[in-house]
Structure formats: structure tokens, C-alpha cells
Amino acid sequence: MRIGVDLDGVLNDIAEWHFACGSKFCLEQNINRGFNPKGYYMEEQFHLTGEENIEFWRQYIFDLLIAIPMRPYASEVIHRLRKAGHEIIILSARDNQYLINQYDGMMDYYVKAWLDKHNIEYDELVINTSNKREKCLNIGLDLMIEDKASNVNDISKIIPVMVFDAPYNIGCTGKNVIRVYSWYQIYQEIINKFAAVNTIDIEEII
User: Fold this and answer.
1) pLDDT tens across 25-70, in order?
2) CA–CA dist 164, 186 (Å, integer)
3) What's the DSSP call for residue 70?
4) Number of CB atoms found within 10 A of residue 184's CB
5) CB 140 within 8 A of CB 2
6) 154 carries an active-site annotation
7) Which of 6, 13, 147, 154 is an active site residue?
8) Kind of pairing, strands 124-126 and 143-146?
9) pLDDT grade, residue 204 (50/70/90)?
10) Which positions are catalytic residues (predicted)?
11) Active-site option among 8, 13, 147, 154
């Protein structure tokens, strides 16, 4: 089975990172407009102006690229899935928007470095993907693991989607949508719902 895996919000906890770094930034910049947990982007969550949002990313882009932690057991579960014969395609909308000067165009490098740092295996890596539904069709995915609400709603019309729970995607439901809260729940859901994994002894793929 070809499994698509989002980066921000799935391999890492982008919601927690946004709140931690955004709160610090707003305090230091004397910005106090409240917090919207259902917002997906920084400017939606902290009600930032365009200039404030740019300044936030100028200060914190490398914290995201280098220091954000991996979700617990993500690499371990992905290793087990690949050992069971599944292909892992990491599919991210990250682009080079906030990488400037000598860092312009280096998003691919930083994504690969972060994945290597956390021992996350993959068969293909696709970044700068604005239309994930179209990309899922083009590369023949059987399942997508995603957190962004609009992507979940679009992609679930064509293939099953596991939505990693977050305040901003709480409204995502449907027969093709499976809500998950951890990487080992993802593993268990795949074992239970997809016969290709059911035929394999769990102990054999550790």
C-alpha cells in the first residue's frame, strides 16, 4: 500500500509549536489580540498583521526547520510499516517563502536533514505541494495521513484519510475520515482496516 504522510502536524506537532513560539513572539512584541485555537496559520491563530507574520517567520523559521520535535514513535511506526511492505511518501506543502538570502531554495535540504536527524524513513519526498488531492491522484496513494482540514475534506473524497487530531480540524468527519491521536493508533488502524497488514505477524516486523 502507498501511504502518504504529511509533515507539519503529522510527523511533528505544529499546533503545539505554533502556540509555544507564537505566545513568546506576541509577548516580546507587545501583541495581545487573543488566541484562536481553530486557526490553522499563525496569522489566524494570533490575529497577526501581514508584517507581524513576516517578522514572526523571520525570527522562528529555523526553529521550525531544525528544532521542532518529532511526534512520539513516528519513526518507529514508519519503520514497521515499511518493513511490512508499505511505501511511505512524505507529502508536504512547505515551500521556500520564508527562506531568504543565502538560504533561498533550501527547503528540500532542511526537510531531508530533519527527517534524517529523526531517523524517519521514506520512499519518496514531495514538497511545495499546493494541491494535495491532485498529487494523491497523480502518484497513486491508497491512504493519506493529514491534519489540515481543507486537505482532509478534499482528499477524503477520493481515498481514506487519517486525520491527526488538532483543534483546527475538529469538524472533519465522514466515512473516509479516521481520526487518530498517536502514531501507534495509526499503526493499529492500518492493521485492523487494511488486509495487507493483517496477514503479517506483528512480531515479525519489529
Assistant:
1) 999 999 999 999 999 999 999 999 999 999 999 999 999 999 999 9
2) 9
3) B
4) 15
5) yes
6) no
7) 6
8) unpaired
9) very low
10) 6 (nucleophile), 8 (proton donor)
11) 8
Average pLDDT, the chain: 92
Domains and CATH numbers, the chain: 2-12+70-205 (3.40.50.1000), 14-67 (no CATH)
Distances (CA, A) of 29 to 18, 36, 40, 60, 151: 16, 18, 21, 14, 32
The beta strands (E) that lie in 10-116 are given as 87-91
For residues 104 and 98, the answer to whether their CB atoms sit within 8 Å is: no
DSSP annotation string for 129-184: -S-HHHHHHHTT-SEEEE--HHHHHHHTTTS-EEEEP-GGGTT--STTEEEESSHH
Return the C-alpha cell found at 2.
502507498
Given a cut of 80, is residue 107 above it in pLDDT? yes
Could you read off the pLDDT of 184-200 as tens digits, one per residue?
999 999 988 875 443 43
Q: Are 100 and 138 in contact (CB under 8 A)?
A: no
Cα–Cα distance measured from residue 109 to residue 115, given in angstroms and rounded to the nearest whole number:
10
